Amino acid sequence: MKNDFGKGKIWKVIMSQAIPLLLAQLVHLLYNVVDRIYIGHLPGTGSLALTGIGLAFPITTLVGAFTSLFAAGGAPLFAIARGEENEAKAERVLGQVAGMLVWTSFVLLIVSLIWKKDILYLFGASDVTYPYADDYLRVYIWGTTAAMLSTGLNGFINASGYPRIGMLTIFIGAAINLVLDPVFIYVMNMGVVGAALATVISQVVSCVWAVSFFLKKNAPYHIRRAYMKPDISLLKEIVPLGFAGFVMQGTNTLVNILCNVTLRTYGGDIYVGVMTVINSVREILSLPGGCITQGAQPVLSFNFGARKYTRIKEGIRFMSFAGLLYMIIAWIAVLVIPHALMGIFTSDEEMIRVGTESLKIYFFAFAFMAGQSAGQSTFTALRCTKRAVFFSLFRKVIIVVPLTILLPRMGFGVNGVYWAEAISNLIGGSACALAMYLTVYRKFPPDGETAHI
């Protein structure tokens, strides 16, 4: 039987989604960062190889951005349709997203194959670091379709009310990656190429698992070929809603490129490597808070479709305060053990020394990101498209990009890059949370009426 997000205590429903998601994402995180851990500790070449992988981040982030454009836009519509008991529309949305993920992945693959070298130099590669970035990327890009489908469809598995099966999508791929990484990197002496190959194989297996869920006869919803053809009327609903997630990850790509180029100019290749480690630490520390908001999103969407606004307000309160509490704890951890966090990813003493202070600056005001996450999740879940897009642009494009350009030139040097992120956390997170409270939370009508938010 399909789960009904409209019954039971809202915090329990959210956590029933968030806990399997957290477990899955923890394992998924391992299979993302384990490459960097193994590569960063390679004797002699570890720091340069780690820098090379970091140069490929903008491309992998861009793949995630296009996945969000369709999947993050489709999943809330899918959940709202479930709340409205409109099963036919739910299947149409699922099929449309699956089709667009496939076609977009082909385009990204072709672009990467043709302009790979130019792209990597644009992203901050030097003649020293380019070979490592090229070795990783020329293998990694062949898993683009599998990566987009496994990630994109997993959101629909969770929104269908089957978070444990969604958890297994990630567990299976992660387990394979964890086993293959040391074999390919060390035993078979494949280095960076081995790390990329292990990732691609694991993505393919996860993709097969996720797709097969919707192809089984007893599946709650099915991917139907007829619904995979582009449907402009449906895309007009999906794309605007997914555009917020696309902007968030797309601007992350822009910021990654800008940071790499600026750090190479003001500090050299070692600072690009430090930024790779900082990004990895951020992925680890952001994960539990992000899982709470991700777990809440389909629950909020379902209850919005069912016009149960009291439950939505309870869900927003729980999501916001739980996320804030966690982010405060994570921020304290960075202040107390920055050296240990850097040491997870590299044994290069110079990189650890340089990165320790950089880490503290970058994570200044990290707790305020809880406001950004809660606000963005609420806007997306309730189809507040324009606000979701605006606050995605506001933090990254309006705050981070100008500051990343200006602060290093104003005497801050490489530290200006890290202060730009910290300032954006403070201003962007506060503004997004306040806007969500004033324009959404306070505007709900009594249950059963039509909300105008």
Fold and architecture overview:
This protein is 81% helix and 0% strand. The chain has helices spanning 10-40, 46-55, 57-83, 87-122, 130-140, 144-159, 163-187, 191-213, 232-266, 269-305, 309-336, 338-343, 349-362, 369-381, 385-412, 415-439. The protein contains 16 helices and no strands. With 453 residues, it is mainly alpha-helical.
Question: How would you summarize what this structure contains?
Answer:
This protein has 16 helices and no strands. With 453 residues, the protein is mostly helical.
Topology:
Layout: H1 10-40, H2 46-55, H3 57-83, H4 87-122, H5 130-140, H6 144-159, H7 163-187, H8 191-213, H9 232-266, H10 269-305, H11 309-336, H12 338-343, H13 349-362, H14 369-381, H15 385-412, H16 415-439
